[in-house]
Amino acid sequence: MHDFLLAKEIIDELKKIAVEKKIENIKKVSLGIGLISLAHDGHSEHTEDVSMENLEFGLKNISKNTPFENTEFEIKKTAGNSWKIISVKI
Ligand SMILES: [Zn+2]
Question: All domains of the chain, ordered by start, with CATH?
Answer without folding.
Answer: 2-89 (3.30.2320.50)
